[in-house]
């Protein structure tokens, strides 16, 4: 062993200088090193080179024009790579019981071939994350989320006959959203996709394999409030799926998009994002940043009729003793200047909350926002609310106080999202 170590030492190549090593290290940490299975196609379309780090993957803020990418969602068909989304396979005789134990909604009511939006909490009732749960069969599920939770899921699975595995890298995903999304899938040869209702899922043959040995799972879900679908396929089939959709959608206006456009659409739909509109309990440093489901608009998920689940006692106690401290609301703000990250005031003087997402909505023709307010503001007290906006005017910021009112979410409702069968635009 010692002789082998000496040989390696004597045969080692010359080491780089300190300056070279430092430059290499800095370059390494600036580089997002993971690409998704669709990366070759996305890189070929990228014009803006506007990238961000999504869970260690190189993902686009925009690809060609963030404004036009948004309108591609609302008027055509938009293709968005959701492969970096964390995905877990939960399988086994106790899979249903296990997921019923850790998530808020009653999993026994989720039938095979269906999806529901859910969330999960720690023992103190604070939200760990939200996501979608796909029931692929009676004993097999796919749980998708923003954050990674494998150690927590494995610890929670003790005593259950269930296996939990992360399949983020193994399964590639695409979101196909917009009015022509159904027409693209129909033209791509996915026979029977017209039968999918909102939150339905089914498997379809891919690569022309009538035996179904190569399949793509399609669900009628999305994050835009529009007609849309999400497609999941083994990573090795990713590029062929991309090419199949792009070829079929050429005459339907299909365009690849980045996150900025998607984020605008989700805001119009009134949907929330973990660690943007609320801080997950594992990431919160200060106790006043923790949120219960009722404090971020997820109280409808809590099913107190089912058996025990994580956080049940704490959630029930907070409701009974009226200890809920915050409320997440939709706001309509006068004027047209977006109020992102603006402070919300009561009677222009008392600070009562903060806006987490805001935009001028081209669809709603309103200045909209999502804000977290301290109760009773936004709950029982909804009048005389103001936001503080700093607008650039002639190279100088000007403080504007704009009136705001609490309004229901979503900010827009599109009939085509739930139409059955979907229209073939």
TrEMBL record:
GO BP, sorted A to Z: methylation
UniProt xrefs under Pfam families: GCV_T (PF01571), GCV_T_C (PF08669)
Residues involved in substrate binding: 230
Domain GCVT N-terminal: residue ranges: 67-306
Record-annotated Aminomethyltransferase C-terminal domain positions: 328-411
Gene3D superfamilies membership: Probable tRNA modification gtpase trme, domain 1
Keywords: Methyltransferase, Transferase
Gene Ontology terms, MF aspect: methyltransferase activity
Keyword Ion transport: no
InterPro entries given in the database record: GcvT/YgfZ/DmdA, GcvT/YgfZ_C, GcvT_C, GCVT_N, TrmE/GcvT-like
The protein's name: Aminomethyltransferase
């Amino acid at each position: 062993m010692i002789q082998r170590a000496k040989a390696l030492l004597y045969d080692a190549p010359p080491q780089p200088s300190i300056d070279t090593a430092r430059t290499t290290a800095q370059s390494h940490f600036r580089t997002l090193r993971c690409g998704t299975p669709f990366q070759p196609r996305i890189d070929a379309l990228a014009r803006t080179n506007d990238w961000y780090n999504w869970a260690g993957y190189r993902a686009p803020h925009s690809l060609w024009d963030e404004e036009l990418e948004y309108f591609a969602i609302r008027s055509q068909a938009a293709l968005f790579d959701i492969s970096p989304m964390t995905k877990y396979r939960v399988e086994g005789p106790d899979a249903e019981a296990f997921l019923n134990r850790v998530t808020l909604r009653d999993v026994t009511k989720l039938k095979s071939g269906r999806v529901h939006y859910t969330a999960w909490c720690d023992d103190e009732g604070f939200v760990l994350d939200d996501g979608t749960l796909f029931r692929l069969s009676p004993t097999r599920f796919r749980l998708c989320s923003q954050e990674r939770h494998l150690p927590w899921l494995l610890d929670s699975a003790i005593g259950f006959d269930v296996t939990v595995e992360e399949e983020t890298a193994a399964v590639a995903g695409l979101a196909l959203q917009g009015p022509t999304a159904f027409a693209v899938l129909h033209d791509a040869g996915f026979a029977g996709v017209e039968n999918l209702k909102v939150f339905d899922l089914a498997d379809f043959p891919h690569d022309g394999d009538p035996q179904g040995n190569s399949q793509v799972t399609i669900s009628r879900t999305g994050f835009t409030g529009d007609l849309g679908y999400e497609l999941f396929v083994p990573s090795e089939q990713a590029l062929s799926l991309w090419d199949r959709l792009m070829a079929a959608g050429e005459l339907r206006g299909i365009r690849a998009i980045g996150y900025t456009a998607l984020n605008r659409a989700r805001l119009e739909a009134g949907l929330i994002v973990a660690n943007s509109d609320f801080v997950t309990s594992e990431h919160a440093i200060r106790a006043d940043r923790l949120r219960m489901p009722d404090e971020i608009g997820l109280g409808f998920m809590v099913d107190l009729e089912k058996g025990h689940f994580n956080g049940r006692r704490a959630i029930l106690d907070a409701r009974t003793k009226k200890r809920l401290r915050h409320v997440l609301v939709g706001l309509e703000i006068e004027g047209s200047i977006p109020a992102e990250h603006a402070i919300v005031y009561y009677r222009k003087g008392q600070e009562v909350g903060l806006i987490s997402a805001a935009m001028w909505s081209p669809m709603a023709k309103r200045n909209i926002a999502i804000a977290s307010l301290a109760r009773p503001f936004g709950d029982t007290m909804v009048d005389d609310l103001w936001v503080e906006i700093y607008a650039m005017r002639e190279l100088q910021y000007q403080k504007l106080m704009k009136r705001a009112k609490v309004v229901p979410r979503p900010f827009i409702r599109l009939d085509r999202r739930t139409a059955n069968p979907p229209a073939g635009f």
